[in-house]
Design brief:
Elements (H helix, E strand, L loop, with lengths): L11 E9 L4 E9 L5 E9 L2 E8 L2 E5 L2 E3 L4 E3 L4 E3 L6 H13 L6 E6 L5 E2 L8 E9 L10 E6 L2 H10 L3 H13 L5
Parallel strand pairs: 4-11
Antiparallel strand pairs: 1-2, 2-3, 4-5, 4-8, 5-12, 6-7, 9-11, 10-11
Length: about 190
């Protein structure tokens, strides 16, 4: 069966049952009618898109200090990342996040490379949120303030294997593996 064999038209919204807006997330409960005429209750979340940035300098990944994550109730190591505000593009968001999380100024960057242009859906049955991945390469002679720096890992295959043992964030792991795939690291 090919993707052309599936109906492309959306399910019909019968009624909105509830909407809870907030600055970070909107929770929506709806009744939807599927292609078979069944009425289904669905809960979904609308969130701003996210950016995760692999920050590289002199063949090393640079990480900000680990942060406490309320969703999992612990401190985790993560690549720099954050939400894309409505008035910014994902690319415009990258230098803002790097300044905030690693103290890196835009003039410290050699280049920014997108890993995807459309954004990957994070959880398509529950959320509209997309994830954009970027690689930010720093100029080799820039010194990153040690007050911001949480960890470094080599960008070689052994460093990536160690990093995969330490990263618990699926989005960070996904961006790392996409970079490894696109840049053919270890092949």
């Amino acid at each position: 069966m090919s993707k052309n064999d599936y109906p492309s038209n959306p399910w019909r919204v019968v009624q909105k049952l509830l909407e809870i807006p907030s600055p970070w997330v909107t929770i929506i409960a709806e009744q939807l009618e599927n292609h078979q005429g069944e009425i289904l209750d669905y809960w979904r979340v609308e969130k701003a898109d996210s950016v995760v940035i692999l920050t590289i300098q002199n063949q090393h990944f640079l990480f900000p200090r680990p942060m406490y994550r309320p969703g999992v109730g612990k401190t985790t190591l993560d690549f720099p990342g954050g939400r894309v505000s409505p008035e910014k593009t994902p690319l415009e968001t990258v230098p803002i996040i790097l300044q905030k999380e690693l103290g890196i100024k835009p003039c410290d960057l050699d280049k920014i490379t997108p890993l995807n242009h459309e954004g990957w859906l994070i959880n398509s049955s529950f959320s509209n949120q997309k994830l954009y991945g970027f690689v930010a390469e720093l100029l080799p002679n820039i010194l990153v303030d040690q007050n911001y720096l949480g960890a470094t890992y080599p960008t070689n295959i052994l460093g990536i294997e160690d990093l995969l043992q330490d990263l618990v964030c699926f989005q960070c792991r996904g961006i790392l593996l996409e970079w490894k795939y696109q840049f053919k690291i270890g092949e």
